[in-house]
Each structure stands twice: as structure tokens, then as C-alpha cells.
Amino acid sequence: MDKKWGDKRYYNLNYFLRNKFGCKVFKISLDAGFSCPNRDGTISKGGCIFCSERGSGDFAGDSKFSIKNQFNNIKSMMNKKWKEGKYIAYFQAYTNTYAPITILKRKYEEAINQEDVVALAIATRPDCLGEEVLDLLEYINKKTYLWVELGLQTVNDKTAKIINRGYDLKVFEKALSDLRNRNIDVVVHSIFGLPGEDKKDMIRTVKYLSTKDIQGIKFHLLHLIKGTPLMSLYENGELEFLDQNQYVNIICESIGMMSPDIVIHRLTGDAPRNLLVGPMWSLKKWEILNSIDKNLKDKDIFQGMYFNFTKNTLD
């Protein structure tokens, strides 16, 4: 191994943030009370079939409170464990560019004006980035460090229809181009274990993203949450969970293929214990992360070692 990112074999978020800001940086997840065009009938109803009732913001603040109150409430709880550090205000729940521009501007500025905030992260859909929104994001990016998160999940348009994603790959590519043309960093979400996908499909998504002009990636395991449309596929026998070894092996192979310039923000996701149907092994988050580290070490894999090969074998 000829390169380390701290004590990891991949370009991890903690390493990136410490080097950028010179201290420990924590994310505070916020719920701005927005909706989603894939839920309100503009595109579809019900959202992506895996998305929870809280729009993937199950661990975010409470939208009944202002951005300032959410931020300070969460910050005070975090300060009990970590006394020092800076913060990223993270608009996580639902689609965080899907509101009138005046409301977006007010809420973004409320977040970045909180004490010790050094960055803003905005999770959204590629089809919710019109010119006005892009102009606002460019303005915010000049005031503070910003990244925008896009939920691609898979490069396979057939799978996208199954999960009711609501847009095709060309929409993602345009959004990525529009953001990068304005020098805005992009973090992309990918999910392993989607219905109908095998390892080849998952790796194809990784290969695609590894050659794109993205600055970060979040790898997720598909979680089955009570009350989501995905339940019907599971009950009909159309959904098979990955086991822990399968997931760890795919993650490690993906790390090897990923460009060494792309920050890996996440290697597995979280789900509320009381709502999770499966896979139940996913609740043991630290065990999974330790297994990934061990697998990388045992196989002597580090991020980027297969990258040049990957660029030439995208199919």
C-alpha cells in the first residue's frame, strides 16, 4: 500500500474534512419541511419505493421547529459528547431544492449563519435544479463551502423504473454538468441490493461513477422499512437481501475501482431499528465497518488500485 488517508485505505470524509478545516467537523441533519415532486403528484405519488415516511430524514431534526432551533438543539446534544469542533448544516429530508426560491434562500442563509457552521450540504433530486436554483446555489457556494447530494442509486434505467426514481440517467448527467459548470461539488448516492440487481449491475454503477466529475460518493445498503412501497415486493418474494459478506465484498471491490480523488462519505446507511424489516444485520454498523477495514487489509485493497483498469472497461 503506497497511500493512506489517515488510518484508512480509502479517501474518507473525516480525513477530507480535517484537512480542509483543520479540526473535527460534524454534520447536523435538518428537516426544512420541504416535500418532493415524486411524492406530491408532480412526478408521482409515494416516492421512491424504498424511501421512508420522513423522506430519508429519519435522524434529522423536527420540521416543526425553525432551522436555527433544530440546529442548536442537535448541537447542544452533540456537545455533551464532543466538546470541540465545527459543523456542517445538512439539509437531508425530502427534496431540498423543491420550494420557492425566496424560501430556499432564507432557510439556507439561516443555516449557514449559525455559529461554528463551516459548510452546507443539500440533498436533492437531479430534476429539481432549475436555473433559479442553480443561481442560488452558486451564490451560496461563494459564501461558504457547499456540496449538493444527488440520489442516483443506480445507473440502470430499468431498475430506476422499478424503484420509481422518476427520472432517467440523462437527467442526472445534465444536473451534474450544470452543478460542476458552476464549480459546485457533487456527492452521489448509490444503493446496493436494489430489486432485480445482481453484483454485475451494482459494479456497473460504481464503474460509471468512478469516471464522472463527482467529488464524493455515498454507498448504501438497501434497507426495507415498514410502510414503504418496497414492502409489497418483499411480500411477493421479489426482493432478496444481500448478506453481510456479500455486501462487504462488493464494497471493498468498489473502493478499489473508485478514483482516488473521490471522497467516500459513507460505506453503509442507517435505518430506525423500530421500522427496519431487513436485513437485520445492518443494525450492527460498527461491525460492518470493521469488517470492511479487515477485508481491505486482508486483500491489500486500497482506493484507486483498479481505477485505470476500470476506465477502460466501463461495459
Largest sheet: 7 strands, parallel
Instruction: Let me know the average pLDDT.
Output: 93
**Could you give the order of the helices and strands?**
HEHEHEHEHHEHEEHHEEHH
Derived structural class: alpha/beta
General form: globular
Beta-strand content estimate: 15-25%
The tally of strands reads 9
- The CA-CA distance between the termini, in Å, is 28 Å
Helix content: 25-40%
Side by side, the strands of the main sheet go 1-2-3-4-5-6-8
Specify Rg, calculated over alpha carbons.
19 Å
Unreliable segments (pLDDT under 50, ≥5 consecutive)?
Answer: none
Number of helices: 11
Describe this protein's structure.
The protein is α/β, with parallel strands linked by helices and 315 residues long. 37% of the residues lie in helices and 17% in strands. The chain has a 7-stranded parallel sheet, sandwiched between helices.
What's a concise summary of this model?
The chain has 315 residues and is an alpha/beta fold.
Label this structure with key terms:
single chain, 315 residues, alpha/beta, seven-stranded parallel sheet, two-stranded antiparallel ribbon, 11 helices
Task: Write the topology of this structure.
Blueprint: H1 13-21, E1 25-30, H2 67-79, E2 86-91, H3 101-112, E3 117-124, H4 131-143, E4 145-153, H5 157-162, H6 169-181, E5 185-192, H7 199-210, E6 216-221, E7 224-225, H8 230-235, H9 244-257, E8 263-266, E9 276-278, H10 285-298, H11 307-311
Parallel strand pairs: 1-2, 2-3, 3-4, 4-5, 5-6, 6-8
Antiparallel strand pairs: 7-9
Helix pairs in contact: 3-4, 7-9, 9-10
